[in-house]
Amino acid sequence: MRVKFRFLCVDMAAYSGVQEVDVEDGATVELAIAAHAKLNNIEDTLSKLSDTMFMVGKDPARRDTVLNDQDEVYVMRILHGG
Question: Which residues of the chain register pLDDT less than 70?
């Protein structure tokens, strides 16, 4: 199945714009991110994205959220400040 990623406010060059990745049926957000990392030769992706939140479509998601074909996964930096 194919999943589309949108990276918002994530300041690493490989995480820009919209990217698509093919994953096995029943893949989770975490497995899809790992597939994206492998495709882009990025090491230790999940620790680099430790300060982010995920959404699948308009719904909040966790790393263990199961994806469906053609899902859009949003990866967004958690903003801090005062």
Answer: 9-17, 44-50, 79-82
**Structure-block tokens of residue 56:** 């699948």
pTM listed for this prediction: 0.80
Identify the three-state secondary structure at position 63: coil
d(CA 55, CA 40): 21
User: What is the identity of the amino acid at 34?
Assistant: A
CA 69, chain centre distance (Å): 14
Strand-pair category, 52-56 with 2-8: unpaired
64: closest CA among 46, 80, 76, 51? 46
CATH topology of domain 2-77: Ubiquitin-like (UB roll) (3.10.20)
Q: What SS3 class is residue 52?
A: strand
Tell me the domain boundaries of the chain: 2-77
